[in-house]
Request: fold
Amino acid sequence: MIGAIFRGCLQGNARATVYWTLAISFFGFYAVAIAPDYEGVRQYATLLESFGPISTLLGVSAEVLSSSSGFVTFIYLDYSFLYYSFFAVIAAISISAGEEEHGILDWQLSLPVPRIRFLWERTFAFLVIFAIVSFVSGAVTWFSSFLNANVSLDFWTILSASLNFLPTLMLVFAVTLWISVVVRRRNAAIMLAGFFVVASYFLNGLGDLVGGDAGAFLRGISYFHHYQRGSVLIDGLNPANMLSIAAVAALCLALASLAFQRRDIGI
Amino acid sequence: MGESPAIQTENLTKIYAGSGRLTHFAAFRKIPGGLIAPPRPPVHALEGLDLRVERGEIFGFLGPNGAGKTTMIRLLLDLIRPTRGKAAVLGLDAQRDAVALHRRVGFLPSELSLWRNQRADRILRYVASVRGDVPTLLAEANRLAERLALDTTRKVRTYSSGNRRKLGLVIAMMHKPELLILDEPSSGLDPLMQQTFYQLLREARAEGRTVFLSSHILSEVQTICDRVGILRDGILRAVESVEALTHVEFRRIRIRAREEIPAGCLENVAGVSEVRLQGRTAELQLHGDFDPLLRALSNFYIEDVRQHDPSLEEIFLAYYGDGSAVEQ
Reply:
């Protein structure tokens, strides 16, 4: 029955969804709670700028750090996205290499479901889970802003930022899925996907640091650059960019599906 | 034209690639004192298997661990792809028509793993919703669970291995499949539950359904199977009815004479092998007719001759010992 695997995946991951929502919401709340007044932010920006290249490597932008709200959004969007990336890695590995290594995939694939549908229904389920975690955490962060007089968050900016998470998260998810389908072993897949996330994070900062064509190239191969958290705060959503990332995610998903369809299971 | 067989394979071969390809990440193995293990040669798990299982029979697939039983089952279910040859199940191509086939087949893997934190009834509901007709399937699942004395309201992690096995049986049988493929089905079941399980299989056969089970428990195969295939090193050595297999090949004979039977007097007798002499008693294995043996003993006063048909275990050992039974 179409949708059964989708629903099963949502139900099976209900607890994980709650935990991740709580964790990232708490992080949003924390970012609001520690936000200093305007003078504090200015001092913070000055301090970071004094670090020179390190501030660039960490992706700190004076443009973003121009207010307490910018400070919160910067802290929240930057670090929570890193957490989300690891969530996407864990989720993608659980549906292929993880279940395969535990032997759960054997009997599931003996059910009357094409392998590709099995993979896609679970992918859509995780897209919904990511959306739930992202929107609820964003809403909690926005509500928290009422507790700190220094912070005034724009609801639509937070909502746009939450929406902006999704294509890039799906890219991380799809790349990890592809890796886990190809390498088969859970630990190897975690290692490679974790490397992909961490390397992307630092390549983006390194690109800013290096500058010029080389910097542009380094930024270009990092998904953190394409995530464009800074421009979402300033210019709002960039649908063309989001669609491009979603298209690359779909391509990786197609490659993962093809590999999954063709290979032996559970050997 | 008659009904297609439940299972038919032609030259079915599966060779697992060795681990020499460095591009394949799974090739990396931990070894003491090094990162990369030396390349493993390809494994011929199944070689040119031709098998036909008729509908409505209980077919036992017998062999020790590593003989290729599970590989065969995984090929039938399209979990793995053959290197050569093809398999048809219920008249459908195992690879091309896998989804249609899975609707009509129930499968119990040898080592069933389930989501440990899920309740059994939720897993059953999930399986029912994937298969389609949820109320009917759940009703049948509950009926089976009751017969197997399985409490489905508990989480899987609280189950013993026997209870997990029962849950696996319920999952495999809840849609009343035309073909049941069971890999080592009764391991972990207590004797009482084994009897219930055998009864379920007999009922399935009575309804015209087919059971294909792999086992290394000889008594189990002898108890419930109509025919048995013996697999050794990936090669199908024999396919026989259980009855024929236990009667045709050889017999165990015990002879007691009035005087001592001299050593060597039975050694060159046609059909006689594995002679053990102990004073006035001789124990031996006899292939074929009795006549050469009776003629060899004609000079002795024979007090007693006892024959017993070999158990499946003895036949099995003969197949797996030096292969002499196979040669003959």
Summary: The mean pLDDT of chain A is 84. The longest helix of chain A spans residues 68-102. DSSP finds 13 helices and no strands in chain A.
